[in-house]
Amino acid sequence: MMKYPFILIRPIGKTSMSLLRNIKSKIKGNIKFVRKISLITTSCALVPFCANSVDIAPTSLSKSERNITAQLHLADTGIPWGMVWLPNGDLLITLRDGELKRLKKGKVIAETISGLPEIAVGRQGGLLDIVVHPDYASNGWIYFSYAKPDHHGNKSTAIMRAKLQGKALTEQEDIYVAQAYGNKGNHFGSRLVFDNEGDLYFSIGDRGQRDKNPQNITRDAGKIYRVRDDGGIPDDNPFVNNDEAKKAIYSYGHRNPQGMVKHPITGDIWTHEHGPRGGDEINLIGKGKNYGWPVISYGINYSGTEITELTQKKGMEQPLWYWDPSIAPSGMAFITSEKYPEWQGNIVIGSLKFGQVVMVTLEGNKVVKAEVIKDELTRVRNIKQGPDGYVYVAVDGKGIFKLIPDKSL
Hints:
Helices cover 5% and strands 36% of the residues. Strands 1-22-21-20-19 form a five-stranded mixed sheet, with no helix packed on it. The chain has a four-stranded antiparallel sheet with strand order 2-25-24-23, with no helix packed on it. By secondary structure, the chain is mainly beta.
């Protein structure tokens, strides 16, 4: 059954109601028709729904009644893009303007770490995500992504590993540098996560070249990648035997994934990615799979014009969930902590657009509900569950907050 991306939840006038009755029978036939009609029913509110359910099952982005306090953990006026804890409890924070900071456990002021590579800072580019090796205690490797200039006016996403000695990075080496196709400052990706086998996954956005990169496995960008911890290519990567393909590609057809996390039980890799105007997605990443962008999409151009008539196509994956209108998702974490017993097993996601923390309720691999659990945070850039069990939220221009639940949660 064809799905449509919204329902009307506010009272509307008789004229609009009559129009809706007239088009009700057409909903199954043309999702884009419905979207165009929605542009003239401006009194409506658009809400997300689960794109792979058997029946049409739209659900509103409701607000939780729980009282959650956002307690300031680290004040910073920059854009805190990535964060990761070291085994000793110190917190490393990447700032998009090209700074790496360490907040020592128990301290309130972070120190700056030197030794970063040359970084192309501007628009969406800069110093991006950061993770530590699963065996960091033994090998000391730290991994981060950044926008790399090529000295010809172009830039791309690169992945570097390095070690931390005192207040400086040492032994820096790029383990993957995507091909630079232009000087645009958008859609770098880029999240990082290790799987249970110690392989590193990372995302790179389509770099603003949607008709060239995402569907072409001979080109970087618009992909999820998998490499060994030293940048080597796993023997079972899906395109390793294709002489023309980028061997590190694990999946393709992505727009701009800025959320990635490993499922704490299954070990599967989950992502979310920005849609255009509408069509932000949550995806379960599969080896060699095509996620459709821009051949299929639940979004439209920012101008309101159509990108594609298709929302489904054979051989292309459907999202587990999508939002219309977009929430501009950024950051993603599974909740396992006893600090939030009613959230365990679910995902929390940040919203850049609305300054919210959204909890996505799961039943297995099915998304059944999305609700706002904290708002009024301006632009939420990242979310992590810390080693102390609390959820930490990075907010543009403000710093990092710790979410404190009330005792009834």
